[in-house]
Amino acid sequence: MKEWFIKLVPFVLLAVSAGIWLAAFLFYTRIGYMILVPCIIGQLLLSLYCGIIIQRFYWQANIDSLTGVYNRRCFFLKMSGILKMKFPVSLMMIDIDNFKRINDTYGHSAGDEVLKQFAEILKGNTRSTDIVARLGGEEFVVFLPQTCCENVFKMAERIKQAIEAKTFIFGSGTDKITISIGIATTIFPINPDCFLKYADKALYKAKETKSAVIAYEQLEVATA
Fold this sequence. Notes:
With about 220 residues, this protein is α+β, with helices and mostly antiparallel strands. It is built from 7 helices and 7 strands, in the order αααβααββαβββαβ.
């Protein structure tokens, strides 16, 4: 279901209920205003409450509660549909280097704050069509539909520079972090798990070389 519609669910239900009761008010006024008006108000409040509950369930099922980006489940659902199409797609797997040091030095609350700020940088340096998600821990992914190798490298470099320029603030402390990025691209339909495996392989290569922050894997054959 589209996110924009989910945001409007409370108001849609409210408008539908208002329309129904307006029709009742216009055509069945014999019931009496003293009975009809409280019923209208009660129905409108109930519709608004139901809409808010539906909205909350959607966010709990699809959004990472800490960072506000998509969770692993939602990421795979969204990526699966797009990967069936035949156009260039790219995937960045991003890992915060030595994140354990942040938790050990400043505490887990500081680590959580770093993850929140890191997610904001990712969202601020990607397009509205890109899918940003947290797989778990300090590992994030960005899925880029209709994006070739050259463009995904430009975005990866932009994210890298934004992270390096950022001083992360948490409680009474501050610190800098670095990241490693693995990139996979393909023009063929591919299984989501397989695509993620290639990006993970590139990420491992980036961490292994250390000097190369960004590593790359290109799929030359269809693996769907």
